């Protein structure tokens, strides 16, 4: 899957696709343990595709936890402002 193709998808579609890849990855891991997996590279490809999708989801939904924390520090919350007032 190419990143350009994924970039065109909506957040809902990306979430659905991430769920499908997680399920597929789970099945591939089970087949690998059972010894019936033909190509181990399928596991690697699925992991990379899942990582691409999760990265795009993070970008489209407003950033990572670190970015949200940095934004909170820049804008004090209403509770902090009430403490300052007598």
Largest sheet: none
According to CATH, the fold-level topology is Helix Hairpins
CATH architecture: Orthogonal Bundle
Low-confidence stretches: none
Secondary-structure content class = mainly alpha
Oligomer: single chain
Q: Note the beta-strand portion.
A: under 5%
Question: What's the β-strand tally?
Answer: 0
Q: Helical element count?
A: 5
Terminal Cα separation, in Å? 58 Å
Gyration radius from CA atoms, angstroms: 20 Å
Would you write up a description of this structure?
The chain is mostly helical. It has one domain: Orthogonal Bundle (Helix Hairpins). Helices cover 77% and strands 0% of the residues.
Write the layout of secondary structure elements.
Elements: H1 3-7, H2 11-34, H3 41-60, H4 65-74, H5 78-84
Give a brief description.
The protein has 86 residues and is mainly alpha-helical.
Keywords:
86 residues; mainly alpha; Helix Hairpins; 5 helices; elongated
């Amino acid at each position: 899957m190419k990143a350009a193709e994924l970039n065109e998808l909506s957040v809902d579609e990306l979430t659905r696709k991430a769920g499908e890849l997680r399920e597929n990855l789970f099945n591939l891991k089970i087949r690998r343990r059972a010894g019936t997996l033909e190509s181990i590279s399928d596991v690697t490809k699925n992991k990379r595709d899942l990582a691409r999708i999760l990265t795009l989801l993070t970008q489209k939904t407003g950033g990572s936890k670190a970015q949200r924390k940095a934004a909170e520090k820049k804008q004090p919350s209403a509770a902090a402002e009430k403490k300052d007032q007598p």
